[in-house]
Amino acid sequence: MKRVLSGMRPTGKLHLGHYHGVLANWLKLQEDYECFFFVADWHALTTDYANPAGIKENTRQMVLDWMSVGIDPAKSTIFRQSSIKEHAELLVLLGMITPLPWLERNPTYKEQLQEIRDKDLHTYGFLGYPVLQTADIIIYKANKVPVGIDQAPHVELSREITRRFNNFYGEVFPEPETLLTSAPKVLGTDGRKMSKSYNNSIFLSDPPAEVEKKILYMMTDTARKRRTDAGNPEVCPLFLTFHLLYSDENTRAWVREGCTTAGIGCTECKKSVIPKVLARLEPIRKKRAELERDPGALQGILERGAQKAAEAAGGTMEEVRRAMGLE
Ligand code: TRP
Ligand code: SF4
User: Fold this and answer.
1) What mean pLDDT, rounded, does the chain reach?
2) What's the structural domain count of the chain?
3) With bands split at pLDDT 50, 70 and 90, how would you rate the model's confidence at 295?
4) Fewest CB within 10 angstroms: 106, 123, 223, 232, which?
5) How does pLDDT run across 194-225, given as a tens digit for each residue?
6) Are residues 225 and 303 located together in one domain of the fold?
7) In testing the pocket of ligand 1, which one of 23, 151, 162 has its CB within 8 Å of the most ligand atoms?
8) In a domain, 201, yes or no
């Protein structure tokens, strides 16, 4: 069976953007592939090295969300990057063959150096981010790497590093393929892209009353100032996210008609979709509550996942050491 690998930095509780953009895709993949899903906690340190206090709790919250939506440890291998020291060994070895210019011209690297101003990112670790990511992928001989468009340049770099390795030392690794995830646009309550840092998110673990309140306060077509003004669903964040993701075609037709003729108000429009969102979140919240009742469960899952991952990574590293003359 083909192998899929993906990871996320531990950012804590996940929101609907993560659910529709990433997790829904992982859920499908775990039915058809041998999946490895891991918490990229070392990658978190490439930017947050000065402030690592949150990593442990953020890992816990994130893995709880993975499992609450149905990422299943009986089907997928779930683990923390930092549990598998072989990633670091492979990072050192890949560092020997990775040309600096490949890293320096990486568009994500250049962009983030520009944009992130509150941290000093002129570090060896941050420059080497894609090399560590390459180690994460190829140590499991993963065939496919599901990522969003923003991560695609990193996987491309991984393919180049892999080719270079295979050229020097023989065909140890399959070249990992990008599995581009087509993510629907999920907008937050302020109409911008849903993102934790914008404070506009609906979290998978929000209680129903909170979800309802957030949707009731969500931004709509800003040109529709009064109830008697007509609106345009095609520019309304509430419509573009919630009705597109949760309503059936009949409801959408009712909204289009009512909104453009001022026949319905925004509150009425919102109230028509809230129950559908709550219904989708209900089983997720129930599963989370169940998991939270047994704090040892999560630990056990991560430990068993790490055992499976260590087996695979250990086998690969024996081959790598042999290929590089280290045995
Ligand atoms: N860089 C990824 C992100 O920020 C996380 C990640 C680390 C990853 N290693 C990976 C993703 C390997 C896919 C494969 O989301
Ligand atoms: Fe948006 Fe609905 Fe209000 Fe129209 S009626 S502006 S679609 S919330």
Assistant:
1) 97
2) 2
3) confident
4) 223
5) 999 999 999 999 999 999 999 999 999 999 99
6) no
7) 151
8) no
Task: For residues 81 and 83, give the distance between their C-alpha atoms in angstroms, rounded to a whole number.
Answer: 5
Give pLDDT tens digits for 70-118. Answer: 999 999 999 999 999 999 999 999 999 999 999 999 998 999 999 988 9
- CB–CB of 46/77 below 8 Å? no
CATH of the domain at 216: 1.10.240.10
Q: Which of 232, 235, 252, 255 to mutate to test the pocket of ligand 2 (most atoms within 8 A of CB)?
A: 255
Task: Tell me, yes or no, whether 27 lies in a domain.
Answer: yes
Quick one: which atom of ligand 1 is closest to the CA of 132? 9
**Residues 93-102: contacts with CB under 8 Å, at least 24 apart:** 93/320, 93/324, 94/131, 94/134, 94/135, 94/161, 94/165, 95/128, 95/131, 97/161, 97/164, 97/165, 97/168, 98/128, 98/131, 98/161, 98/164, 102/157, 102/160, 102/161
Q: Are residues 266 and 117 in the same domain?
A: no
Q: Are 243 and 273 in contact (CB under 8 A)?
A: yes
Ligand 2 nearest atom to the CA of residue 265, by list position: 5
The pLDDT-based confidence of 66 (bands split at 50, 70, 90) is very high
Q: Which amino acid makes up residue 212?
A: E
Mutate which of 214, 224, 271, 274 for ligand 2? The one with the most ligand atoms within 8 Å of its CB, which is 224
What's the gap in Å between 258 CA and the centre of ligand 2? 9
CA 287, 294, 275: angle at the middle one, nearest 5? 20
Asked whether 16 and 206 are in contact (CB, 8 A), the reply is no
Domain residue limits at 275: 206-288
Q: Does the beta carbon of 145 lie inside 6 Å of ligand 1?
A: yes
